[in-house]
Amino acid sequence: MSDSPALTEVESYGVERIPDADRSATPFDLFRVAFGGANTFATCVLGAFPILFGLSFWQGLAATLLGVVGGSLILAPLAVFGPCNGTNNAVSSSAHLGVHGRIVGSFLSLLTAIAFFSISVWSSGDALVGGAHRLMGVEQNDGVFALAYGIFGLLVLTVCVYGFRFMLFVNKIAVVAASTLFILGFFAFVGDFDPGYQGSFPSASTAGFWPAFIGSALIVLSNPVSFGAFLGDWARYIPADTPRRKVVTAAFASQIATILPFFFGLATASIIAKKAAPYMDPAAPNYVGGLLAISPGWYFLPVCLLALIGGLSTGTTSLYGTGLDFSSVFTRFSRVQATLFVGVLSIGFIFLGRFAANLSQSISTFATLIITCTAPWMIIMVLGYVTRRGWYDPDSLQVFNRRQRGGRYWFHHGWNWRGMGAWLTAAVLALMFVNVPGQFVGPLGDLADGADISLPVGLATASLLYLTMLWIFPEPREVYGPRGPRLVRASDAPVPPITTETGAPVPAVAEGA
Questions:
Q1: Cβ(398)–Cβ(17) under 8 Å?
Q2: pTM, full prediction
Q3: Is residue 3 part of a domain?
Q4: Which SS3 state, helix, strand or coil, does residue 429 take?
Q5: Banded model confidence at residue 250, pLDDT cuts 50, 70, 90
Q6: Is residue 425 one of the residues assigned to a domain?
Q7: Residue 4 lies in a domain
Q8: Alpha helices in 282-332 (DSSP H)
Q9: CATH number of residue 132's parent domain
Q10: How is this protein annotated for GO cellular component (predicted)?
Q11: Strands 404-405 and 499-500, bridge-based pairing
Q12: In this predicted structure, which of 50-64, 179-193, 318-332, 484-498 has the lowest mean pLDDT?
């Protein structure tokens, strides 16, 4: 086995299959990266939504637990593709959406990265500037905020350029440091915390309770689901022979652990609602400002540290994988060049959205819409893994990246209309059921008495439609490997050989080459 590269050595691998000799990560490393990316202020902001929607503390806690557990269960199976195929999840999706259909995963990951990178930088930048103002009298103006956002953006970009090992190092520190600071925060606010906070709904039978409860749970659930497109980016360095249950357990545990920042956000939001109510105005919520308003003086420095650590860890986990995948869609870019391009694009969006278009309040809605489209893609991936019995052809997965044609996953001119049709139908139908009051309400958004049921609709539609299409229109037997399909039928349709774009045959590529 080769020696591990130095921490400051720029990562050379893109989305090609990672050779077995270079896979030295563990399931615990996956836990640290995934948890570190969510153990931040951005998650606290999402944790404040149950109070913002009018729920009591206990009602909000129930919605939070439901969202975290439900989202963790949806996300965890996506961890198996990285060790199995040695590449990211968008490339692995070639097996189910087709060689060209894999761009769906790339597009979703790009939008998700920009959205959550923006949420992270805005919330952490605001907290850092606000804490510095209270601690040292630093002015709060657009210039100072721009400086904070720029520092975060450049730090994140630097880590992402160095690559996976440097990102892992950052998150090893972030997990411990941020968790310690959150626990310290409980001591800062325990005197003001009232678990009996009533909110606007004294009981579950109160009109408007269920829409608020379901909406809160779905916003919380969107946090773990947002990692679906990125999980393979971090898991691809885990050896292929690692037991799948350990990898799935690590991914599940990483999101269950986010109860810590979610609870912090929920508890402090209930305090803000009582002591600094204007900050929790649904028309113009400002959780970070409210947190600083109720914080004791000695907690301002920890707030600044939380902002710095959280902005760095969340930003790197969002941006790293997108730069990685972008280099495979546009092969003229190396991984480093693609990361720089996507990073600059994202930082530009942050400044434009914050200072020119005032999108900072609506970015959470944008993220919700992206997750609504991502969840059906995730369920198709998981069901595809089950029907294929976890068997994949590494060479055929790389056809798009090598600008080739043919192979097991070529299907119909590079598109598998079974997976594509199920995803597109489920995503469009789910978007029609979205109900985010004051932001976006789909044509069918009011059918459930104001409750947002878009995610359950999308997941159910994708599951039923994909399995039905696999049964009625069976895929070629060769995509299933030696053990054959599970739950569905297979056809004897021929699979075209892998060729270059000009039609010349391509010699077989050894695994790990």
A1: yes
A2: 0.88
A3: no
A4: helix
A5: very high
A6: yes
A7: no
A8: 287-294, 300-329
A9: 1.10.4160.10
A10: plasma membrane
A11: antiparallel
A12: 318-332
